[in-house]
Amino acid sequence: EDKDCNNIGKTIYEYLNTDDLTQVYNLGQAVNYLENGDLKKISYFKENGQIVKQIDYNYFQERRNQYRSHGIIKSNVFAPTLGGSTSPDDIFQLHYYPIIGYRYDLKSITSTTYEEYPSKYITELEEFDYYENGLLASKSVSKSNSKQAITQYTYPHNLNDEPYIAMASNDVNILAPIIQKRQLSSVNGVNNETYKRLDKYVQNGDAYLKHQFEDSYGGSSTIKVFEVLSFDAYNNPEHLITKDGIQNNYKYGYKDM
Question: Which strand (E) or helix (H) includes residue 165?
Answer without folding.
Answer: helix 164-168
